[in-house]
Structure formats: C-alpha cells, structure tokens
Design brief:
There is one protein chain. The protein is α+β, with helices and mostly antiparallel strands and 694 residues long. The chain has 4 domains: 120 residues, 2-Layer Sandwich (Beta-Lactamase), CATH 3.30.450.20; 105 residues, Beta-Lactamase; 147 residues, 2-Layer Sandwich (Beta-Lactamase), CATH 3.30.450.40; 225 residues, PPM-type phosphatase domain (Phosphatase 2c, domain 1), CATH 3.60.40. It contains 20 helices and 25 strands. It has a 6-stranded antiparallel sheet with strand order 12-11-10-15-14-13, sandwiched between helices. The protein has a 5-stranded antiparallel sheet with strand order 2-1-5-4-3, sandwiched between helices. The N terminus is likely disordered.
Length: 694
C-alpha cells in the first residue's frame, strides 16, 4: 500500500466528492507550499511545491516529523511553531532560507515566508497547517532599494546636500534634521516657511520671492544664498527644488540644499584673479600707449598736453598738473601747454603742498579722501589746508615725483572729483607712468635747447640783411622743419658785385647736421670769392666744381641756382646746378617756370650752361628749395604744377610786393600739408619806375 493511501486525508466537513477532489487538486498543484500536520506534529499531507522547497519527495515527508525530514535548525523552527499552534497560541510566522531548499536564478537559496495556522473545528484543534510563500524576488527588490537608498544618502553626504520636501502650497511639513543640524533651528522654527529665516538678512527677501514665484508658476526653484550656521558664520548654499506632478496635479516639492561655499570661494577667487589679470593687462596697454604718446611729444608744451590726455584716459583723473623743479631757487614751476609757459607763484595749498611733498620725500603722495589729505599734510599750513578742503570739489589726490638718475626734476599731479582707493598694482602703474613722463620731459627740454641752438646756428649762416640796390627789391624767407633739431642744408645769399650788378644764389646741401652746415658754409664762402673775381654764372659754377672735388665728399650732394642781375636793363644771367627751376611772376601775364635744362649738381663734372633772359619791370623772380613743393604726400612734378597755379591766383598788390608774395606762396603751398623739410625762398622784384633810373 502506498503512503498516500496509508494516511487518511483530513476530514472536510460539508464538502461533496467533487469539492473534495477540487480542493485536493488545488492544494497539490498550487504554486505555494502547503503541508498538514496531525496532533502529534507529523506530516499528513505535503504538496509538490513544499516538497520542492524541502528538496525531498512528498512521500519522504508523510508520517514523519520535521526533525526526520529537515536540517536540525530548520526542523527546530518547524516543531516550535507546530507546538505553539497546537497549544492554541495562534498563527506563527517566520522568514528564512531553508538549508536544503532549491536555489533561485542567481544561485542563492530562496527566502521563504513560513506561516503556521491551526486546523480546527468546533471540537477543537486537530492539527496545524503550513503555508510557504517565496519571498526571494521581493527580498531582492527590498535589498536593491535599501542599497540604492544607502548609496543615495552616501552621495548626498559626500556632496553636502540636504534633501527636503514641501507640500503643493510650498509649506514644509516634514522635519529635516540635517538642515536643523546646520542651522541650529528647532523643528517648530524649521517647519512651514521657517527655513527661510536661516537665510542671510540681505538675501532672505530675494529667496522668499523666488520661492513664491516658483510655487505660483510650478517652475523649478533654483537660488544661491547665504545661510547662517550654528556657529554664527555664513556659508553659501544652492537650493534647488522641482515640482512632483501627477497628471495636471501638483503633489509636492522635492529639493536639495547644497553647500557650495568652497566652490563659491574658488569662483570668487578665480574671478578676482581674472579681474586682476585683466586690469594688469589693461594697465600694460595703457602704459604702452602713454609711452608711445609721450615719445611723439617733442616740446615741453606737447608733453604737458599729452599728459593731460593720458591723465584723463588712462588714469581717470579730472585734472593733471605738471611741474618742473628749478634747481636755482629750488621751487616748483607749473608748466603750461604753451611754449615757455612757467608759473613760479604758489598755485594753492593742494597743488604746491602735495607736489612739494612728493619731491621732498621722493615718493608718491596718495590721499584717497580729504581725511587722508589732512593726515598726510598735518605739518603743513593747517588753516589753509582746511579752507581748501572746505571749498574744493576735489576728493582724491595723487602726486608723484619725476626723477632723473635718482634726482627730482619735477612732479606730476592728478586730482579726482570722487574718493578713490589706489591699489598697490595701480600705484606701480602710476610710478611707471611718472617715470615715462620724466623721460619725456627731459627729452623735450633737450630738444628745445638743441632746437634753439640749431635755429641760432642756422640764422648765423644766413645773411642778416639783403643788400639794398637801387631799382631792385629783394626779400628772403626761411622756415625750419619743426620736427628737426639739426641745422639744415638750405641757404641763400645776395650781394652787389664790383661792376654794379647784383648776384644771388639759393642752394641746398643734402642732409642735416653739422656736416651739411659746414659744407654749405664752404660753398657759400667759395661762391662769394669766385663771384668777385669772375662773376659770370658758368665760370662761378665751374670754379665751385674744382673746389668741390678738392674739399667735399662724393656723398655731399649740393644743388644751387646762381644768377647775376643788371638792374638797369633787367637782364639776368643764370646757371642751374641741378636745382629746381626759378619761378617768374608777372603783372600782366601768367606765371611761368624758367624751363632751362638744369646741369648736374656740384662736383659732377660737366660743362656748365649759361642762360640769359630779361625781367620786365613789375615782375618777380622767385628761387625756392624743394621743401616748398615736395613732401610725403606730394611729388616734385605735381608740386611744381601747383606752384604755378597758386602763383597765378595772386592778387596784383601781392605780385608787386616781394615780402607778401613769398608769404602768399608759402601759405598756399603748405596749406593742408605737414611741413617735413626746411623751406627757403629768395625773391627779386623789379618795380615799375616812375622815371628812368639815374
């Protein structure tokens, strides 16, 4: 007889044969484990699922106790639960892994929920029923969820984040111990909108407005603000919250407070460094531009004017003052932008006191406000300083010494209409600017001194007065190129000859400086000597060629026009050694150039030409240097055409006056052009005589 027939099935009161068969099939085939124990604690019925859980066949269980079927530890759990149920203590539950149970898909033993219930009727408890449910999937899900939560909390801890929630209206309903640990708030102080009270007073209103706007618009809340901690200091936090929606309904808000103090400080430091680097680069550019502008300033007035522009554009000063130290009287003289403008008188306590302080101490005087001004000048004339500060609109002052080889030569002063804090970096910039200003001032003073010397030397090489000859009016014009301090090579001369005629010459020795000046002086003296012995132009130039070969270098290129004029007949005899053609201006006809073929410059062997023409009364012959017709923007050929055009537009009264004529030609030819060379002219005018000359 099989085990199944040897153990009678449990009584099932009220069930028909079909119901009993259905229940038997259901218990046997159900996916959950099922067993029935009799009053002695022995298995009476075990379905396939539970037999698989035990790892034995169902025939191996019936009629046996759990200790005969299971591992001792599992058996003890079973028997204790059965005893409790049979004793009327009610259902017993347990969760565990069975030692001999089948593994799950991962190879681990399954976890089971074991529940024992009493099998009873009106007569009492007749046995115990075991139901086993597989909890492996749920357990794994719970473990995975728990691990996720642990990882999430670890991540929040690592990133200094505090998670918080609020209801749909933006009110905090759940406590957040982490936030209260940071802020020291109680739960009552934190809930609702009390968390906002931990914000810095200057930030609270802004954060509250942003939170209200986010709640009203159901939009993401994202704000950075300072939070007061328990220690009383403030740290930067970024608070971000998002709305949790279910369909169109807002359920709640979930957010996180993140401590970004370190990041904020790093960003702030990076921003300050970037700003400092940008300011340093800007100061370098400004200093380079200031250096370039000062390098173009040739005179003291131009230096003053350049510093005024630099003070406004590069320093932001409302006024700039430059002073020169007079070593004779040891006083500062204020410099103006006009040539030679120097003010020796005291110009007010602010200007003299601050600049004298800088020169005396040989270090910058920096007062960012009136209080600092009084503190630095406490030993000065106190009433005068107090009165000045009471009436002035100036609120900050910077005065710097101008040093040359370590010795003061002047002072530079900036004033500002608003208080100003001068950083160490800006102080370095101002001192460098003062150094460039000192160099420019020294250079300008040297330029002016050399320029005056050059002008004096140039003037000494030219005749002081032109000869007065009856029947002839002569006039000369000379203007040095303003950008040069060297002596030029342009020259002119006129003198009477023993035979009563008048000789005139205008020449140009190429180059500048002493070499050109001495060469011009030798040619001038040699020409005078030759003219008195053999006055004819061709003979004079031939003699000059011989002298040139003996005394001048091959690179000393010299051109000139030499003429001899008979005032009684108007006859002009002329030779041209590579120079520009003379201009003839007439009263009754248009001007014209003496288009004679020019010979070679002096020193280049050639047969010298000799040209004759007559000058009518009322006409003017003009000799000129290339500085009149040629410059960087105008070639010689176009300059000559323009010269004829300008001369043709001269009024009659100008044509009849050689002085006015030369002034008119210079103004007309240089208008719109920058003079970059010496300009020299010599005019000979034959006036209309009322009666025949004696």
């Amino acid at each position: 007889m099989s085990t199944e027939t040897s153990v009678p099935p449990p009584r099932m009161s009220g069930l028909g044969p079909i119901d009993a068969a259905l229940l038997d099939s259901l218990l046997r085939e159900a996916p959950i484990g099922f067993a029935f124990f009799d009053e002695s604690g022995r298995y009476q019925r075990v379905n396939r699922a539970l037999a698989a859980i035990y790892g034995v066949g169902d025939s191996g269980c019936r009629g046996r106790t759990p200790s005969e079927v299971l591992d001792p530890e599992d058996a003890a759990v079973h028997e204790a639960a059965i005893a409790a149920v049979l004793a009327g203590e009610g259902p017993v539950s347990s969760e565990r892994r069975l030692s001999d149970g089948e593994p799950d898909d991962t190879g681990e033993r399954r976890r089971w929920s074991l529940d024992w219930y009493p099998a009873q009727s009106d007569d009492g408890v007749h046995g115990a029923v075991l139901i086993a449910v597989d909890l492996s999937d749920r357990y794994r899900a719970e473990v995975a969820l728990r691990r996720t939560e642990e990882r999430y909390r670890s991540l929040l801890t690592a990133t200094n984040q505090v998670v918080w929630t609020a209801d749909a209206d933006g009110e905090v309903r759940e406590d957040c111990p982490e936030w209260r640990t940071i802020t020291g708030q109680t739960a009552e102080q934190y809930l609702g909108r009390g968390w906002l009270d931990a914000a810095h007073p200057d930030d609270r209103d802004q954060v509250e407005r942003a939170w209200n706007d986010a709640v009203a618009d159901r939009a993401t809340f994202d704000e950075i603000f300072r939070v007061r901690t328990q220690s009383g200091d403030f740290r930067y936090y970024r608070s971000r919250a998002v709305p949790i929606m279910r369909g169109d309904s807002l359920m709640e808000w979930v957010g996180a407070h993140s401590d970004i103090t370190t990041q904020h400080e790093a960003d702030d430091m990076r921003q300050r460094l970037t700003q400092q680097l940008g300011e340093a680069a800007l100061r370098t550019v400004r200093l380079q531009k200031a250096t370039a502008d000062l390098a173009e300033a040739l005179t003291v007035g131009e230096v003053v004017q350049a510093m005024a522009e630099i003070g406004q554009s590069a320093v932001g000063a409302d006024s700039t003052t430059l002073a020169e130290l007079d070593r004779d009287d040891l006083r500062l003289h204020m410099l103006g932008d006009e040539p030679g403008h120097r003010t020796a008188s005291r110009a007010g306590p602010d200007r003299s006191a601050t600049m004298e302080y800088a020169v005396r101490e040989r270090r910058p005087f920096i007062a960012g406000n009136p209080a600092e001004m009084r503190a630095l000048l406490e030993d000065e004339d106190e009433p005068e300083i107090v009165e000045f500060l009471r009436t002035t609109e100036e609120r900050a002052w910077v005065a710097l010494p101008l040093l040359s080889a370590g010795q003061p030569i002047g002072a530079l002063r900036f004033t500002f209409s608003a208080s100003r804090e001068v950083s160490d970096e800006e102080k370095v910039f101002l001192e460098a600017l003062a150094g460039q200003c000192a160099l420019a001032l020294e250079r300008a003073k040297l330029f002016e001194r050399e320029h005056r010397t050059a002008e004096a030397l140039q003037t000494s090489l030219l005749p002081e007065d032109l000869p007065k000859v009856k029947g002839i009016r002569m006039q000369a014009f000379y203007r040095s190129g303003t950008q040069h301090v060297q002596v030029g090579g342009d020259w002119y001369d006129a003198f009477p000859l023993p035979d009563g005629r008048v000789a005139g010459v205008l020449g140009d020795v190429m180059g500048k400086g002493i070499k050109a000046a001495t060469g011009m002086s030798r040619v001038r003296n040699a020409l005078r000597a030759l003219a008195f012995s053999m006055p004819e132009p061709a003979d004079v130039l031939t003699g000059l060629d011989r002298m040139f070969d003996a005394t001048e270098g091959v690179d000393q290129v010299t051109t000139l026009v030499y003429f001899v004029l008979d005032s009684e007949t108007g006859q002009v005899e002329l030779s041209n050694a590579g120079h520009l053609p003379p201009l003839v201006v007439t009263e009754n006809a248009g001007p014209w150039l003496l288009e004679t073929e020019p010979d070679t410059p002096l020193g280049v062997s050639s047969e010298r030409g000799h040209h004759k023409f007559f000058v009518q009364p009322g006409n003017t012959v003009v000799l000129y240097s290339d500085g009149l017709v040629e410059n960087r923007k105008r070639a010689v050929a176009s300059g000559l055409d323009e010269l004829v055009t300008v001369a043709s537009q001269a009024r009659p009264e100008v044509v009849g006056d050689p002085q006015h004529m030369l002034q008119y030609l210079v103004e007309g030819m240089l208008a719109g052009y920058e003079q970059d060379d010496d300009v020299t002219l010599l005019a000979v005018h034959l006036p209309v005589m009322d009666s025949a000359p004696e």
